[in-house]
Protein 1
Amino acid sequence: MPKETAPTMKLKLTPEGHAVVVDGKPVYVHDDGKEIPFDAVGTVARISALNAEARGHREAKEAAEAKAKAFDGLDPEAARKAVETVKNIDDKKLVDAGQVEQVRAAAVKAYEDRLKAAETTHASQLNELNSKLEKVVGQLHGELIGGNFARSKFIADKVAIPADMVQAAFGRNFKVEDGKVAAYDNAGNRIFSRTRPGDPNVDFDEALEILVDSYPHKAAILKGSGASGGGAQGGSGAGGKKTYTRAQIDNMSPADAMAASKAIRSGEAVISD
C-alpha cells in the first residue's frame, strides 16, 4: 500500500514577491492548484475548541477512574460465582427454612459495608492531605509576612519598638494573595502605593509607613517623637506617663515586653531613645 503524503500548500506571491491578500487573509495555492485564503483567526479558534473538547474527555475519563477506585480489591470472578451460587440454591428449601430474606440481607450488607469502608478510607486520606496542605500554606504565609517585618528598613530606621511588637500591632493588616504580600487598612480597604498611584502592589515598607501614619499614638512608637524621661523602667515622662527605652524593652521578658508595647500603643506610656 503506497504511503500517503501530507498535502502541501504554498503562499501565493505577486511578481514583486509580496504575499497576495484577500479580505485580510493570505492566499495559499494547494496541490490541485486551487487558491484558498487562509483564515488564521478561525483556525486558532477551532484549535482552541478542539483543545477544550479534549480536556473535557480527559476530565470525564479521570472522573470515571476515580469512581472505579471505590471497587478496588473486589474480585469480579468471585463475585460472579457468589451470584451463581445464590441463583442455584433451591428456593423451596430456603422458603421452608425461612431464610430467603436473611440471605439477601446478608449479601446486601456485606456489599454496602465494603463500599462504606472504601469511601471512609478515601475520605480520611483526603482530609489528611488537606490538613497538611493548610499547615504548609500557613507556615509559608507566616514566613512571608513575619520575614518582611524582621527585615523592614522602615522599622529599623524609624520605629522605636522591636519588629515583633510592630508585627503584633499591624500584622493583621497584611495578607498573602497570589504568593505576594498585600496590605489593607483597618476598614478592610486595599492600600495602594502613593509613589506609584493606582498600583495595588504597594511595597511592604511603604504600606507599613502608611499604617503607622494613621495610628493615633504613632508619636509613642516612632523614633525622635519627642518622648522624654530618664529611661528607668516605670519612670515618669512627659505628662506623667511611663517612659521606656528601647534597650529596656529588648531586655524584658516576653510578658513584660508585651505589656509595655500595649501601654505604648494605648498612649499610657512613651518610649525614648
Protein 2
Amino acid sequence: MKENVFDVLIYLFENYLDRDAEQAPDPDEMRTELLEAGFPQQEINRAFDWLETLGAQQPMRAASLPAFRIFSSEELAKLDVECRGFLMFLEQSGILTAESREMVIDRLMALNEEPISLENLKWVVLMVLFSQPSEEVAFARMENLVYESFPGYIH
C-alpha cells in the first residue's frame, strides 16, 4: 500500500479536524494511530508540517477588488487547466476570495504531488476554508461540493 501525504491529510481531516479541540486526541496519539493504520512515518510528519503551516497562515480578509491571477510555470506544471478553471469557478461563485485562493495555491504547491488532481484540489480548498474561522458559509458550500462528488470517501 503506497500512502502519500495527501492520504494522511484526508484521514486526519475526516477523523479529527472537524471535532472540537476538547474532543481531539493530542498529536502524539494521532501519530500513533496513523502508524497503526499503516501510514509511513515520513508521510505522517509531512502531513503534520503541512497542517502546521496552514494553521500559521493569517486569517483571510475579504478582498475589495477583483483580482487577476497569472500562474507561474511551477504552478502550471502542478495545476492543469481543469484545476485552474475550478479555482476560477470557486472564486467567481464566492466560495474563494483572492486571498483564500492564494492560500489554496500555496498549500497545493507544498504537496509533493504532480500534477494535482481535481479531487485533491477540492479537499485542499475544504481544509483551507475549515482553517479560517470567518469562512463557515464558504466551507459549508465547499463541503457540499466535495461530498456530493465523493460519497463515502473514507480511508
